[in-house]
Structures are given as C-alpha cells and as structure tokens.
Amino acid sequence: MICPNPKCGKQNPDENVFCEYCGTRLSTIPRCSNCGSPISEKQHFCPSCGKKVSHKNEADEVLVVFIILSALCPLAGIIFGSVNLTKKKTRSGAIYLTISIVVWLVVVLFVLLTSISSL
Ligand SMILES: [Zn+2]
Ligand SMILES: [Zn+2]
C-alpha cells in the first residue's frame, strides 16, 4: 500500500491503516466485509474466513449515489404527473407519468444489470 499523501508516497505494509512515515490514513485498503481482515488486491477470497471479496473503489460509491438520485427523480415526476391528472390537466399529467415511469424502469433495469454483473 503506497501512502496517498503526495508529499510522502512511501510504501507501507498492507495491514497498516495509517502511514508509518506521515500518519496519513491509508483509506483505500480493502478489508473483508465479514471479518475485517486486510485483503490484498490480488486476493479474491478472504484468507481468514473464505468470504468472496469484492474490490470496490470510490467510483462504485459515486455510481450508487447517482443511481439513488436517478431513482428518486422519476418518483418526483410521477407525483407531479399524478397531481396534474387530479387537476384535470390530463394531457401534461399523462406525459409526465409516462416519461417518469419509462425513466424509472430504465434505472431499475440498469441497477439490476450492474448488480448481476458484479456478482
Ligand atoms: Zn505517508
Ligand atoms: Zn474475512
């Protein structure tokens, strides 16, 4: 594990949580979600408990936030469309509802496909 601090950048043992040389947190160390043991990038199964390891990075977390947001936005559209329908604005209400449901279905399908491919 190389220290993420650009002024330091020294090599640390993989089990270190903090840099030995400057104290920067080595936050990118992958750890087993089951027992918390440190896991190297090459290991696909935890050496301590045998659980399958998924090497997640920060891009995955950004993607999860993006998926949650894009799942919530169509819901707002569905509510807005329903309100328009009850106000007898049938045409715009129906358009909002249709677009929202289609976008929402695409998001759900996308989430399902990405979760299947990461298994
Ligand atoms: Zn360091
Ligand atoms: Zn483990």
Search tags:
119 residues; mainly alpha; 2 domains; 0% strand; elongated; binds zinc ion
Folded structure, characterized:
The chain has 119 residues and is mainly alpha-helical. It folds into 2 domains: 1-54, no CATH class; 58-117. It is 48% helix and 0% strand. It is built from 2 helices and no strands. The radius of gyration is 22 Å and the shape is elongated. One zinc ion binds next to loops.
Are any ligands bound, and if so which? zinc ion
Helix coverage percent of residues? 40-55%
For the termini, the CA-CA separation is 26 Å
Largest sheet entry: none
Mean pLDDT: 81
Taken in chain order, the helices and strands follow as: HH
DSSP strand tally:
0
Structural class category: mainly alpha
Beta-strand residue percentage? under 5%
Per-chain topology:
Blueprint (H helix, E strand, L loop, with lengths): L57 H29 L3 H28 L2
One zinc ion binds next to loops.
In short:
By secondary structure, the protein is an all-alpha fold. It contains 2 helices and no strands. The chain has 2 domains: 1-54, no CATH class; 58-117.
